[in-house]
Design goal:
With 251 residues, the chain is an alpha+beta fold. It is 31% helix and 29% strand. It has seven helices and 13 strands. The longest helix has 15 residues. The protein is globular, with a radius of gyration of 18 Å.
Amino acid sequence: MHGRATISRQQLAEIEAAAVRSWPALETADLDGWLWRYASGGSQRANSVATLSFAGTSVERAICEAEVRYRAKGAVCRFTIAGVTAPGDLDQRLAALGYERGQDHLTMLREVRATATIPASVELIQDATPEWIEVYLCGLNDDRKVVAPSILAGLPARRTFFAYRRQGRIVSSGLSIVDGQLASVQCMATLPEARRQGGALAILSAIEARALHDGCTHLYLQAEVANAAALALYAGFGFRVAGRYHLRTKP
């Protein structure tokens, strides 16, 4: 069982909003406060409606507009449902409309330690190199491989890519986006033949040290509940559960 972080609803909302900004879709639109996102396939996060705030008068009309927009793209309609989704009954509304519930994900948080240092084996780079991208893509399905380079090219300016090298070759990747006092942990990947050999842990250590340098107080990440190996790594590094989210998809 993973421990829980003690945070307020407002703090969770700030983390979830930072997560939305850290992986920008190729196209977006405002739907009465919701953020409609489209990235031509691949990442479900960048192809779903972020529902962290709602200022409209008709939830049904906003849902209908999202469906029309995705239909025009030839894409399925998805909504991301988090612990701070607005309105609070959106999950129940979508279920009543026949939207199917997807896998559970965790939003995890940990404080940045003042003693964090960057391992000598980890290289920090401003832009993703072809070698880094090759490692990151190794664990993605084909749809995500196609669109990921375009999303990476549009990341926020306060980004750092992390590369763990062994014998001169990148075998593990990571990415962090600074957003106020938060720093993300993203794009964690290791080549199959190099797994469980310390690469991911070195990347995490480097991300924490960079976050300390940039004045951040906390690291956050999002991961599937089903990814037991990754969650064990993150829990061992001190991450605790701050919230949960899932997707609702129109059949």
